[in-house]
Design a protein that fits this description.
Chain lengths: ~240, ~110
């Protein structure tokens, strides 16, 4: 038990630097929610229930545009598809854990918890890797919730004349550039973005989902072409 | 949007997101993630985020505007430079918003 606690606290401690990024992002999500007309309670509730910032911001933008319910739900799910990748990567480390423990910690799996955990495991795998992950996830979740509540209370102080809805595309820009790690990813972004401009007029904001799928397809295609070239060069 | 439809929206978002988060943690040893899916998922963030950003900057009032009169596009390009250099959400918002307010005041 002692060793498990030790790994839990090491995970929480290793998450401290990244919390500096979690605080403003949670604040932004809540302030943005209030800016499109949610009450502070609804704003904080969204962060508590959903706990996935990028999808929350996307849905808030769609609420502001008056999109239909189903498109908002689908958009959130598409954005959060990346979690299956994290889930598959973490799965071997959690295989001996009971379901009553791994289910709640899967619920609070975040980009940041995954990032801290995997970069630590790349150097050294702790005696209880599951507990290390639990420590990172718990530290980030707690920070997120406290910041989200603070943001919901602050959000009511921001006047509409500030045009804060422009913070949505700006936050997506920063997240997008963090994802542009190589050329196929840049191609995915260009195809997704340009398709979204062309299909902007489609009903129910369906253009967004169509653009996302075409962008993903373009990225896969670009990567397989690059792989073929590499093979050709090697021969 | 408020009240019950809003809370149902949160619950639907959360249930789907939990299913995605728990998926392979739960299925470990039973189902492997197919290689084609792994390759495709890598491009989800870049593609979706670009699909959100591009129209938001180019349709300021619901109409396509690619001229220098579109201050959202100009401030967005400024924000993009900061995003590219720093990859930091906070700085991108601060610089982008300040540019937006300056261009609005001009």
């Amino acid at each position: 038990m002692q060793a498990k606690q030790q790994d839990f606290f090491t995970g929480a401690q290793d998450s401290l630097p990244i919390l500096l990024g979690v605080v403003p992002f949670a604040l932004i999500c809540s302030v943005a929610a209030v800016s499109v007309g949610l009450t502070p309670f609804e704003a904080a509730g969204m962060s508590f229930i959903v706990f996935a910032g990028a999808s929350q911001l996307a849905v808030l933008q769609l609420i502001g545009e008056g999109a239909v319910w189903l498109v908002m739900v689908l958009t959130a799910w598409v954005i959060n598809l990346r979690f299956t990748m994290y889930s598959a990567t973490l799965a071997p480390y959690l295989k001996d854990e009971p379901i009553y423990r791994k289910a709640p910690f899967a619920f609070i799996l975040s980009d940041q918890a995954f990032g801290v955990t995997m970069s630590h495991f790349a150097n050294k795998i702790p005696a209880n890797p599951a507990w290390y992950f639990y420590g990172t996830a718990a530290a980030i979740w707690l920070t997120w919730i406290i910041s989200a509540i603070a943001g919901a209370l602050l959000g009511t102080l921001v006047p509409a004349s500030w045009g804060l809805e422009f913070a949505f595309p700006l936050s997506f820009l920063a997240l997008m550039f963090a994802a542009l790690k190589d050329r196929p990813a840049v191609i995915a972004a260009l195809v997704g973005g340009l398709t979204a401009i062309i299909t902007r007029g489609l009903p129910y904001n369906l253009g967004l989902i169509l653009a996302a799928l075409l962008g993903i397809g373009a990225g896969v295609l670009a990567e397989s072409i690059a792989d073929k070239k590499m093979e050709g060069a090697a021969q | 949007m408020n009240g019950l439809p809003l809370w149902l929206l949160f619950i639907a978002m959360a249930l789907g997101t939990f299913a995605l988060r728990f998926s392979f943690i739960y299925l470990f040893g039973k189902v492997e993630m197919p290689e084609w899916l792994r390759r495709a998922l890598r491009f989800v963030p870049a593609s979706v985020l670009a699909a959100l950003v591009f129209p938001a900057l180019t349709y300021p009032n619901g109409v396509l505007d690619l001229t220098l009169g579109n201050i959202r596009l100009l401030a967005g390009i400024g924000g993009a430079l900061v995003a590219w250099r720093t990859k930091n959400v906070m700085w991108t918002i601060v610089v982008g918003m300040v540019l937006f307010w300056i261009l609005q005041a001009l």
